[in-house]
Write a structure and sequence with these properties.
ten-stranded mixed β-sheet, alpha/beta, 14 strands, binds S-adenosyl-L-homocysteine, about 20% strand, about 350 residues
Length: about 350
């Protein structure tokens, strides 16, 4: 049987685990502090524990500990892309973006993805496995240690569909915002989903203060199906209903992501229909100029078209911004760094 990942045990579980081992519960609190506040990577470093307990931890548990394989830094805006190797050899990527309001990290929630969105590089090789809560946390821990600066914001917008790894995701959010760990405010955490309807309803009931971002990308069910296979399972109307319900339950304003694909979803009529769909909703629209992926033949919309799309939404009083393209010079789109690494490794045999 696989060993339990001690980085994935929450504050209560680690104390219970220590009691089970015949230790005092406060040993669990000390271990939690080492792993989630002092950010150490192995029991050897937990110097206030006895040698015997450290040895027992080494023997009986695994500990998510990502190895930094590569870091690319953008010359234009300081954005950094990290490629990490997991304990089992799989690789994932994460991004650090520096804003005036603080440092934001974008993490992956799965190794690969099975959602199949047509314009996305992360889904090209399918899904390998879910990430454990400890592996999601360690992406942030490793980046904070490497940069030497506090991470204040988090977006779950890297590779993977977070609501397809629901339990680990929710546990991860609770641990990240736990006062005994990095204590990142839930209001500074955003989870992006392609629209898994039952997951949205479940998440609304978790009593979290996070922001939900919904990848919309189309203004009709027909067009959405062409871009996002998940739309065959959950129709546009159902998704929007779930979003309305999320807002009613949580009081948290939603973000709608809309990747503009040249000639596909960027016309004036698209903008008009989108405005009609979102009418009366307390939301924010984030327009993303599509990042060209070499395996796909989609092109970015012209700058003028993007601006016109934005103006049209504003005319209908929709709150809208165009996403700043960070780190363009280091392979912008999600999953591209990992993909190019895997391609290189395969070529080398
Ligand atoms: N699975 C989640 C989160 C992953 S991606 C989701 O679907 O929301 C985060 C956002 O980037 C999503 O809106 C996704 O559709 C978008 N995206 C993926 N590839 C892109 C590309 N090449 N260009 C622009 N946006 C892209």
């Amino acid at each position: 049987m696989d060993k339990t990942d001690i980085r994935s045990l929450d504050y209560r579980e680690i104390q219970e685990e220590m009691t089970r081992l015949g230790e005092k519960a406060f040993r669990g609190r000390q271990i939690y502090q080492w792993l989630h506040e002092k950010l150490v990577d192995s029991p050897d470093e937990m110097v206030n524990l006895s040698g015997a307990l450290r040895k027992k931890l080494e023997e009986e548990y695994a500990c998510s500990d990502l190895e930094m394989v590569d870091v690319l830094e953008s010359k234009t805006d300081g954005t950094r892309k990290y490629l990490f190797r997991l304990n089992d050899g799989n690789v994932i990527e994460s991004v650090l973006m520096k804003y005036h309001h603080g440092n934001s990290v974008c993490i992956s929630s799965q190794v690969g993805c099975r959602m199949g969105c047509r314009f996305c590089a992360s889904t090209l090789g399918g899904l390998t496995r879910n990430l454990a809560s400890g592996e999601m946390l360690d992406q942030i821990y490793k980046i904070q240690k490497h940069s030497g600066e506090r991470v204040s914001n988090l977006v779950v917008m890297g590779t993977g569909e977070p609501l397809d790894n629901y339990d680990n995701l929710v546990k991860f959010i609770r641990m990240l915002s736990d006062e005994h760990g990095l204590n990142i405010s839930q209001r500074n955490i955003t989870v992006s989903t392609c629209g898994i309807v039952p997951g949205i309803y479940r998440l609304a009931d978790e009593n979290l203060q996070i922001t939900l971002a919904l990848s919309l990308h189309a203004s009709t069910q027909e067009k959405r199906k062409e871009l996002m296979p998940i739309a065959y399972k959950y129709e546009l109307d159902e998704v929007l209903m779930a979003c309305r319900s999320y807002f009613e339950k949580t009081g948290r304003r939603l973000t709608f992501e809309y990747s503009l694909v040249g000639g596909v979803n960027d016309s004036e009529q698209d903008a008009e229909r989108l405005a009609a769909l979102l009418k009366g909703m307390n939301c924010h629209v984030n327009l993303i100029p599509v990042n060209p992926v070499k395996e796909r033949d989609f092109v970015q919309s012209e700058r003028g078209v993007i601006e016109a799309f934005k103006r049209k939404l504003e005319k209908y009083r929709i709150n809208v911004t165009i996403r700043r393209e960070m780190g363009r010079d280091i392979g912008g789109a999600c999953g591209q760094l990992r993909k190019s690494y895997l391609d290189r490794t395969i070529r080398r045999g």
